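2024-03-11 09:14:02 INFO worker-7 job=invfold-0412 stage=load source=structure_tokens
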């Protein structure tokens, strides 16, 4: 009797609640890996804008702005870096003053705006989907390494 009730509940959950207990879509992952392997990401450049545009394609984001913690723009993938740097720094500093242990500010407005710091730089990333903490740190480390090599710290 208990097994019958369990099966009935599972059918109910699958039909009504749209619960899906299937495994990871391996075919989709393989397709994405194949697409990513065909698109070269030439990050071997001396130009900061070309480097950021390659990272933009590599990490599937719409915009990247790098600034100092006080809002001075360092590099950007778009032409509106100064106002975005000032706005991002003001927003991050306000949240940091209210919540001192915060690491990332994420705002959803026409996509996601993710603002985080690394090595005394502020990174403002805009994307259609939010990035994980690991992805944001990887992006920040790549940019920080490039800026360090080019002496743009």
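2024-03-11 09:14:09 INFO worker-7 stage=emit residues=153
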């Amino acid at each position: 009797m208990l097994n019958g009730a369990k099966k009935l509940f599972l059918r109910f959950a699958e039909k009504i609640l749209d619960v899906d207990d299937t495994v990871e879509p391996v075919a989709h992952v393989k397709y994405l890996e194949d697409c990513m392997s065909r698109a070269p990401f030439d990050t071997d450049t001396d130009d900061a804008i070309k480097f950021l545009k390659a990272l933009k394609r590599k990490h599937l984001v719409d915009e990247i702005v790098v600034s100092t913690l006080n809002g001075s723009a360092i590099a950007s993938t778009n032409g509106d870096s100064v106002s975005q740097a000032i706005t991002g720094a003001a927003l991050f500093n306000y949240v940091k003053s209210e919540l001192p242990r915060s690491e990332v500010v994420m705002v959803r407005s026409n996509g996601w705006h993710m603002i985080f710091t690394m090595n005394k730089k502020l990174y403002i990333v805009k994307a259609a989907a939010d990035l994980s903490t690991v992805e944001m740190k990887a992006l920040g480390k790549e940019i920080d390494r490039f800026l360090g090599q080019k002496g743009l710290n």
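2024-03-11 09:14:09 INFO worker-7 stage=report msg="The chain has a mean pLDDT of 84."
2024-03-11 09:14:10 INFO worker-7 job finished
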